Structure to design on (63 residues):
């Protein structure tokens, strides 16, 4: 699954994990993506959407 929301384009981004001795190593922070059935252009499709888009009503869920 691609790590990108189909509606807002939210994707993963870089961050640093900081240890007790202040050594910084790279890590990736993943968005909370869900695979859901949604109505797109009048057809039911399986899309990947972030939870913010689902909650805000940008995604019309299929019955």
């Amino acid at each position: 699954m691609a790590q990108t929301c189909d509606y807002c384009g939210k994707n993963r981004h870089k961050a640093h994990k900081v240890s007790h001795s202040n050594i910084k190593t790279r890590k990736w922070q993943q968005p909370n993506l869900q695979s859901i059935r949604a109505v797109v252009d009048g057809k039911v499709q399986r899309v990947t959407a972030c939870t913010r888009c689902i909650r805000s009503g940008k995604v019309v869920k299929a019955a």
Notes: The mean pLDDT is 95. The chain has one domain: 1-63.
